[in-house]
Design goal:
The complex is a heterodimer of chains A (83) and B (349). Chain A is mainly alpha-helical and 83 residues long. Chain A has four helices and three strands, in the order H-E-E-E-H-H-H. Chain A has a three-stranded antiparallel β-sheet with strand order 1-2-3, with no helix packed on it. Chain A is globular and about 35 Å long. Chain B has 349 residues and is α+β, with helices and mostly antiparallel strands. Helix content of chain B is 33%, strand content 26%. Chain B has a six-stranded antiparallel β-sheet with strand order 13-12-9-10-11-14, sandwiched between helices. A five-stranded mixed β-sheet of chain B has the order 4-1-2-3-15. In chain B, strands 5-8-6-7 form a four-stranded antiparallel β-sheet, covered by helices on one side. The relative contact order of chain B is 0.16. The chains are: A mainly alpha (83), B alpha+beta (349). At the A-B interface, loops of A face strand 10 and strand 11 of B.
């Protein structure tokens, strides 16, 4: 996964995201913020899954769905790419 | 003290660049007396006594050009102008014709050549843009619904339907395209432009060329909100290396002279840059660049007067311009002076 764009984003603790290259802004919640920060730490999807399972009392299906759904959003917004 | 005359001081709902240019000069390190050149007594800039020292009414350049030139010479005889910054497309052709004449009288300008000015016409812009590897969307002019249908068959749907001067609508069907065609034709006349739709976001770049292929600085924004005519109202500064490099390449190729605004679309999927338009003067949001450290009017004046000037394009991203409406109160005697004498002095020397 290409994370170059993700690294250039200005991300605040409130979940407000600003892309200085496109001028686009986004808002995410605490879960989304965690996923972004894990990605920036170069953790892969499996590692992120494990970390969420350790931290949250939810089913594995729900965790898997949320992570994949969020990453799909990042791809659709061109903030990460599959390469 | 430097005397600079600036047009386009109609700071109304679709503001001209003049007030932003003047504000940039007043907030610079230059000691400058600002002269507003207006075409109507109700142009708000005339009454902004904190920015414009004196204003004069000019005859429309589309009318009697001789009267226009005589008026400029009259103003010069009073003010001893150093520089004129033209901020309106409609008057630029006249200034292009008389620039040398004005220079002989001691008035300097940095404006495009007629060849550069012709790039406002997309027919002229497209081959030049493509010769340097820059994309432009396909577009066609039409004056009838028959033409419209033929063009839509070529470029497909959706497409953009644009007026000859302002406004653009995205049409998703033939019926919508016809509706927009008639609406724009009734308001602005012909030709109506049908343009290939690019799924992208709009960005603008402002800059100033020295006429030798170099820029005096560049500044890019993303439009956040626009007026009913599609003009920038609120914007955010962005730093996009590809966009700045593309702008520099174009500027260098054209050896652009004077202020300009590039309007581009960046394709959402491919991030290809599509050049939509070149406006041959500073745009109304020029002050935003100045407030972020890229004071192009100041740099233009320094360049023209052979003074030292900055030419970097270093600025912070994420700065938002919030444009708002405001009111000031003036006495009716100001209106009397500008309508009876064609002049209003705000700050006597």
């Amino acid at each position: 996964m290409n994370l170059e764009r993700l690294k250039s984003l200005a991300i605040s603790d409130s979940g407000f995201i600003f892309d200085p290259s496109s001028g686009n802004t986004y808002n995410t919640n605490a879960t989304g913020l965690k996923i972004i920060n894990y990605l920036k730490e170069k953790k892969d999807i499996n590692e992120i899954f494990d970390l969420f399972m350790e931290s949250y009392d939810v089913s594995s299906e729900e965790v898997e769905f949320d992570i994949n759904d969020f990453i799909e959003n990042l791809i659709n917004y061109h903030l990460v790419s599959n390469s | 003290m430097i005397k600079v005359a600036v047009s386009g001081i109609n700071a109304a709902e679709n503001p001209g660049p003049g007030v932003g240019i003047i504000r940039s000069l007043k907030e610079s390190a230059l000691d400058v007396r600002t002269i507003g050149l207006a075409y109507d007594a109700m142009e708000p800039g005339i009454y902004l006594d904190n920015l414009i020292d004196k204003s004069y009414i000019l005859p429309y350049p589309s009318g009697d050009v001789k009267s226009f030139i005589e008026r400029i010479k009259y103003i010069h005889s009073i003010e001893k102008l150093d520089i004129i910054i033209s901020a309106l497309d409609a008057e630029l052709p006249v200034y292009m014709d008389i620039e040398d004449n004005l220079l002989n009288d001691g008035i300097k300008m940095l404006i495009p050549t007629k060849k550069m000015f012709s790039l406002r016409n997309k027919t002229n812009l497209k081959p030049i843009a493509e010769s340097i590897g820059l994309k432009t969307p396909d577009y066609f002019s039409c004056t009838s619904t028959g033409d419209l249908h033929q063009i839509i068959q070529k470029i497909g749907m959706p497409c953009m339907i644009k007026g000859p001067f302002y406004e653009a609508f995205k049409a998703n069907s033939i019926a919508e395209a016809e509706g927009f065609f008639h609406k724009l034709a009734a308001k602005w006349g012909y030709p109506i432009v049908v343009q290939e739709f690019v799924d992208g976001q709009e960005y603008d770049v402002i800059g100033c060329g020295d006429g030798m292929g170099n820029d005096l600085g560049l500044f890019a924004i993303k439009k956040m909100t626009t007026t009913s005519l599609g003009k920038v109202w609120n914007a955010v500064s962005i730093v996009n290396e590809k966009l700045i490099e593309t702008s520099k390449t174009l500027l260098s190729h054209l050896k652009w002279r004077g202020g300009f605004e590039l309007e581009v679309l960046i394709d959402l999927k491919t991030e290809d840059i599509f050049l939509i338009e070149i406006n041959p003067r500073f745009p109304a949001w020029v002050y935003m660049a100045s407030a972020c450290g890229i004071n192009l009017p100041e740099r233009m004046v320094c360049f023209l007067l052979d003074q030292k000037y900055e030419n970097h394009s270093n600025y912070q991203n994420g700065k938002i311009m919030i444009r708002y409406t405001n009111e000031i109160m003036k006495d009716i005697s100001d209106l009397e002076k500008i309508t009876s004498y064609g002049e209003l002095e705000n700050n006597p020397l």
